[in-house]
Amino acid sequence: MIKIIVACDEKNVIGKNNQLIWHLPADLKHFKNLTTGHSIIMGRKTFDSIGKALPNRNNLVVSRQNQILADGIILCHSLEEAILKAKSLSRDDIFIIGGAEIYKQALEIADQVILTRLHDYFDGDAFFPEMPSQEWEIIQTERGITDEKNPYQYSFLTYQRIR
After folding, report:
1. C-beta of residue 61 within 8 angstroms of C-beta of residue 74
2. pLDDT digit string (tens) for 78-91?
3. Domain extent at residue 129
4. Tens of pLDDT along 53-62?
5. Looking at residue 72, which CATH number applies to its domain?
């Protein structure tokens, strides 16, 4: 199954200046729990913002460049190539982890979207694309716990493509 995993605000903002805007440890833990042991596909800018391959995952980076040199990544030149490569490495789920351009391409082919919705508004320059409501249904909702470490109201939502 191809799954998109993303965190965004009420206006679908996902970042600014190639960085996350908020710090939400509960979301990072959620991301780690879901993606560990699987293949993750990201664009070069997302990889640059992370700065290294994420442990215990197959890290596939989509880039037009040929000169990305980093331990633990598999360079691909298109989303399609990355998906084929991920499928050749494992029959497990494939997670698309960003950024905006990769999300836009992946939304056409994804089976699920796992979305952390921050119930707030942030100033950003990168956005998650609109999900056509006739193509997606929410199959799971969980309200996040707000505390001193997780100061924002948020929910974990799982969308399934309507077939």
Report:
1. yes
2. 999 999 999 999 98
3. 2-161
4. 999 999 999 9
5. 3.40.430.10
